[in-house]
Amino acid sequence: MMPNPHLPLEILDYIVDTLHDEPKTLQNFCLVAKSWVPRTRKHLFARVNFTHPKDLESWKQTFPDPSNTPAYHTLTLCFGCAEVVTTADAEEGGWIRTFSRVVRLYVHSCKNPNDSAVSLVPLHGFSPVLKFLHVSSTTVPNSQIFGLIRSLPLIEDLRLLVYETSNNDESDVCGPPTVVPPSSSPAFTGTLGLMLLQGVEPIARWLLGLPNGLRFRVLAMSWLRKDDLQWINALVVGCADTLESLDVTHHLLGAIICLLRRSQSQNLISFCRWFHRHFS
Length: 280
What we know:
Elements: H1 9-18, H2 23-29, H3 37-44, E1 47-50, H4 53-62, E2 76-79, H5 82-91, E3 104-108, E4 132-139, H6 142-150, E5 157-164, E6 191-196, H7 201-208, E7 218-223, H8 228-238, E8 245-252, E9 255-263, H9 268-279
Parallel strand pairs: 1-2, 2-3, 3-4, 4-5, 5-6, 6-7, 7-8
Antiparallel strand pairs: 8-9
Helix pairs in contact: 2-3, 7-8, 8-9
């Protein structure tokens, strides 16, 4: 490493920020001088992906002290094998919470549907500024989804892709979910995307029961079961005052047989009323 180069801080910051999407160049910057490392870390670790278990092992070996990692710089966090990450968190004292400034979270479970459901509890409230949540899983209990959403009060965008819900989850029993809504519901001012192969009723019923109502601007939902339509309709009507875009897709035997798309420029509110009259 060469001696600390004499470069005005504002010039250095400008150069590094300009190269924010050039990770190889930024990595080389870190070898120039220690004083260049903090600014480059801000961009190098803005997005962290734990796609495979080996990624987690690599992180732990590189940063053995959870209290001294670049996780503070991470704004987008992706867990490709959530069950491995959450298990490690339970064993090692909550290292997930070091990612306390994450705004966008992607959670994917790679468990076999015959395995026990992945637990989302270690993710509860880990980043108080989180606004975007995407959960994709072969199997996850509804109560786990509700609990995670409740713990993140600033969520604006919510996207759920769940192939199978857990049969052992008490909240899957017919009737209202047992989870008590929070005193103030999340922001929910962005996008709601749902594709739940076992039906949208539990999550739709829970969302519609939140005390402050829904204010989503975009709804993007896949309709797979006959009973789903009434709940999709209820969500459309519940968001009618704020809705700007609607995308509802009906799948049957793997094929799309009905596609509804409307935007604000096509008089969406009138369409919502039509949707309500014809599909109630």
